[in-house]
Amino acid sequence: MASFTKEISFRWSDLDPNFHVRHSAYYDFGAQHRIEILEELGLTLRVMQTQGFGPVLFREECVFRKELKLSDKIFIHTKTSKMKADASRWSIIHEFRREDDTLCATITVDGAWMDTKLRKLASPTPEIAIQALSIFPKSDDFIGL
To answer: 84, exposed or middle or buried, with CB in 10 Å at 0-12, 13-18, 19+?
Structure first.
């Protein structure tokens, strides 16, 4: 599998006054896709809550290349671009592409796992998080940290 891919349907509320997709909608779609993928890999919100950990982001950045409009048929492609061997730190990229494969935007997030009881980075990384991220497709330029 080259990436997790999903077609996106835009809503009227995703548009800005210029009638193209507003900047913050991209981040919302990326966050939703990450959670859906983790759920699919068995790392559900319930599991994270029960085991007392969850993802924490250090950086989230979007590079906008082509505007997106309400009627555009867009696919989000998600994969890891960097990760430590123990999955304690990672970077995930989301590419927003038209059906003709034109790259419209790229979101990059850098994160780790947080112990939700201690409110600090989880150490060691929970095994289920290591398993889930090891299944994640990797980018062509993937870097092991």
So the answer is: middle
